[in-house]
Fold these 2 entries.
Entry 1:
Amino acid sequence: MIPIACPQLGSEEQDAVLRVLASGQLAQGECVAAFERRFAEICHVREAVAVSSGTAALHLALLAHDIGAGDEVITTAFSFAATANAILLAGATPVFVDIEQDTYTIDPSLVEAALSSRTKAIMPVHLYGHPCDMQRLVSLAAPRGLVIIEDACQAHAAQIDGKPVGSFGTGCFSFYATKNMTTGEGGMVTTNDASLAERLRLLRNHGQKQRYCHVAVGYNLRMTEMQGALGLVQIEKLEQLTERRIANSAFLTENLAGVVQTPISRRGYRHVFHQYTIRVPQKREAWVRGLRDRGIGTAIHYPLAIHQQPFYREHCGQFRCVAACESTNGAYTTGNMAAIRNMGSLPVTEMAAEQVLSLPVHPALSREDLTMIVRGVRALCD
Ligand SMILES: *Cc1c(COP(=O)(O)O)cnc(C)c1O
């Protein structure tokens, strides 16, 4: 079976972790600090703060920006639940804006309609590894003094015109086992703001300024030295792993374009293909079974959008949805302020949740694997 994800771990990672174990320094040592410096470098930012997960990164980024009760954060419902959960955990209110049909990322033309006097931040998600339209989001946020917190958990090394994601706003990354680089579990916050970085460091470590001097109420969301050591090895492989994902996706698109709806990469954008996601308008379950029968693992990211999740349905007073209206010809129009609605549904998001299907694209795929995936998909189209 070709798996949908496959962490790339070798003897270097093993050696690095064993060295940490032999050293006896398992926490708060040089590995995490060195990993932070290296991560900041590749993101073109001054500071990077390592934490225990991507969720912790999102949560602490919100807290460090002082976002909480009474504040609204504009985001997307087409993401992993952690994006919006972090907003709820901080005590703030998610405002879900519909997505672009082709990139699956937040639709900037709808963000303006979602603004209110309580809006404090925009949290775009670089879903599947395709960067959001950051130029438009920054131009909306900057004059209004809004914070941008990028959920870059799927987008390590993604760029727009050479500028890395995580450097447009406060960046949040995950190193969970299936991500483009991994430390098992882990996360990182990136920023150019030294005082924000200091608050993040306080919050991840019980609010301790020095040992046993607590200037804030914080958490324990630190990264271990074993994770830091893994990260230091993985980060040096990231470029190569990313190039392989991009090459794999190019092969799939070359052989599947016109057969199914393949993913797009906007001009000037470096899509790092955390997922290679096609659209299956009908009988998606049969596709999943059919591909499985041919030895091809698939996944659906995500079968339910966040606003459709049971918890969110039960607590619908805790969020808002902003979508474009259906025009008379049945198409959804965006960018028209008069045609924006503010209610409980997100048609483009909901349609995507019904149709998307991710195929394996990870760096361990061989040419034979890729050919098998192409044959499998083509067979289902006949
Ligand atoms: C993985 C992921 C997260 C959460 O990261 P964890 O490390 O699993 O906590 C958040 N947002 C998105 C888009 C993700 O893919």
Entry 2:
Amino acid sequence: MAAKTVKTYCRFCHAYCPMEATVEDNRLISLVPDTSNEIYGGYTCIKGRQLIEQIDHPTRLQQSQKKQADGSFTAIGSEQAMDEIAEKLQAILDKYGPRSIASYNGTYSYQNSAAHDVARAFHSAIGSPSYYTSVTIDQPAKVAIGPTRMGWWNGGSHMWNDSDVAMIIGNNTLVSHYSIPGGIPSFSPHNALREGKQRGVKVICIDPRVTEVASRSDLHLQVNPGHDAAVVAAIISVILTEGLHDKAFCDEHIEGLDALAQQTLRFTPETVGAAAGIPAEQIIEAARMFATAKRGTAVTGTGPEMGPHPNLLQHLVQALNAICGRHYREGERLPNPGVLTPAGPRAAQATGPQPQWLTDGVKSRVSEDICETVVLSPYGPLKEMPTAVIADEMLLEGEGQIKALICVGGNPLLAWPDQEKTHRALAGLELMVSIDLKMSASAQMADYILAPKLCLEREDVTLLTDIWHDKPYSQYTKTVVEAEGDKIEEWEFFWAMGKRMGLELSLTHGPIDMQNKPEKFDLLEKITRGSRVPLKDIYNTEGGKVFDVPDVILGAPDPETQGRLQLNPPGVDAEFAAAYTDLQSATDTDYPLRLISRRMKNTYNSTGPELSLLKRKGTNNPAFMHPQELSALAIADGEIVEVHSRHGAIPAIATAAEDIKPGVISMSHCWGGSPDPAAQSDEKIREIGSNTNRLIDNRASAERYSGMARQSSIHVAVRKLS
Ligand SMILES: Nc1nc2c(c(=O)[nH]1)N[C@H]1C(S)=C(S)[C@@H](COP(=O)(O)OP(=O)(O)OC[C@H]3O[C@@H](n4cnc5c(=O)[nH]c(N)nc54)[C@H](O)[C@@H]3O)O[C@H]1N2
Ligand SMILES: Nc1nc2c(c(=O)[nH]1)N[C@H]1C(S)=C(S)[C@@H](COP(=O)(O)OP(=O)(O)OC[C@H]3O[C@@H](n4cnc5c(=O)[nH]c(N)nc54)[C@H](O)[C@@H]3O)O[C@H]1N2
Ligand code: SF4
Ligand SMILES: [Mo]
């Protein structure tokens, strides 16, 4: 057959870079950036260039696997595996009830545009609230707790393309390709930043590392980790004291401004600067730079969102944007009203807080304070249980204990806080099923591993990123190459369980055909029904494009439904007090260093180090430290040391890096292997790295409502091994 070139997009990460694939006899012979794309301009990264290799890689599971009595795996047909799994799930459901069946939908579940909706439909059909995702160990304060407590603005915040300032707090988009709107766009981020700087955007970066973003910013606050809430409180205080806020917006749409002014008053630039290790003048300069600009948003990333006081930090960042009025107003055109999200007019008004979401959902069995979180999405509020305490839910005996786990494109043993506990929890399950392309550390603990189709082997649409773009952009990709052998999609698993268990699965816009397996397009059509652009039009468009959607001009507020943003919700006083106390706390002499997280260019969490180009860039997660720190401890660059916390110890490869603030260790997560001594993970540190989640006690500083663990800014010390 003659070679054919088609347009598609990469789903190695969520930047969804458009590509052109040339296929001959169902084999990929080339995969190149789609240089004609108007948004990405031909951008791709080293990971995306490995998609061809990934398809035939020797570590890829070509068939589903079943664990044998001796712990080894043998190949099994996927239909046979699913027959057996359905029977086991039914027995567990009958014996222990719906809550005992949990699914954990990790990062690769998000890359399949139908996976979450069908998984949720399965949970609804069996009545199980035990729906978990990686979002609740990522930034739950941002997507759930913050907007729930303060309310949100229906017109959204200023986006990068029409901003003249951006405050970027612990978010390194140039490596992570991640930002919420307002920060540097995740799509071709280098170009976006260059274009912004030419336009005159002022970038304020707050990060303990001179990151790729920090080195290109106008003002870098190289803070000690863990004081971001206090830093933002101080910035707010300067703005309010100097009267730089948007008084008209505050009068009309905000409640609790006086209280906020009071609460932030004692967070003076001097007090906060001393603890955060930066000059007071920098805090004042950041406040003035941000507030005197006309448009632009403050955004956070994972670093501070995983550190201390994330609920307060998120509250203050939202408050900062609100008091400066950084929201689209009546009569303004929304840069991206959404392509796949529901059509309809939008009004320039706030929706007030929803405190009932914090308390009325399904309660965690392990703590009164922790509850189902409500994640805001363009499709409405979505409930999920907090992953930070899922291992405890598995270990705590009694009514509702989790007995079965379906793990979809996630790697709990490396990703969940408290690795030892996670290991015990997974080992105690009656049934664990993993849908994973390789024998990951977690998959090895499963009873069944189902071999999935990879991204170029399936259809998808850019549902996840629909409102992250600052233009109404979308792309539908058809299957580029048919998967060889017996492989399934993530959603097909849940459909197959539903069918075998005699369930009726339903999406928001109607039931799923349970007799004949639906086509993916039909599923996606049902998921997106009512969208601004019909899915068919996107399907019929070759490649990604900005769609010509009618302008959405924000309408006048409706007095009936209009709410106010609440700057002083119940509970924040105590959070302010805790953040203030932290400013005064003496250095912990036993654990004087702070271990923080980072992303690495050559991997996506635990995916990638097996691929040749990525492997060449490194097969482990070095412990980056300032050379001064290394010499003070008499540690050589490249030496294997032990990093230990009150909770655990791991080996680490000490690596000198000038860009790290002294006192800080910067290490990536999701590396290493099983903590089971039999796995001898520590001995393989240079080949597989080590797992920072072994240093974390997930309950020691669990955040209210979400149970979010302290996954960054961890108190540690370093010990020489020889
Ligand atoms: N200490 C600490 N812990 C952290 C973090 C941190 O910064 N510090 N970060 C947290 C964050 S933000 C997140 S999102 C989580 C990540 O948590 P997880 O999502 O649980 O972890 P990943 O390593 O992304 O797991 C992805 C899995 O999917 C598999 N996979 C790869 N491609 C495919 C595919 O196409 N289909 C399928 N079905 N599977 C595939 C991979 O082999 C891998 O096992 O970790 C969290 N944990
Ligand atoms: N290449 C690659 N891309 C990825 C991933 C990957 O593993 N590799 N992971 C994906 C995932 S799951 C996610 S959630 C996103 C995350 O995307 P980002 O949030 O952009 O993640 P990072 O690049 O780790 O950036 C976090 C930054 O926070 C800083 N930081 C750490 N602690 C603190 C602190 O206390 N205060 C402040 N102010 N800063 C702090 C770190 O130095 C780091 O620069 O990236 C995604 N993209
Ligand atoms: S940034 Fe890299 S990994 Fe992410 S979608 Fe683009 S090419 Fe793929
Ligand atoms: Mo994440």
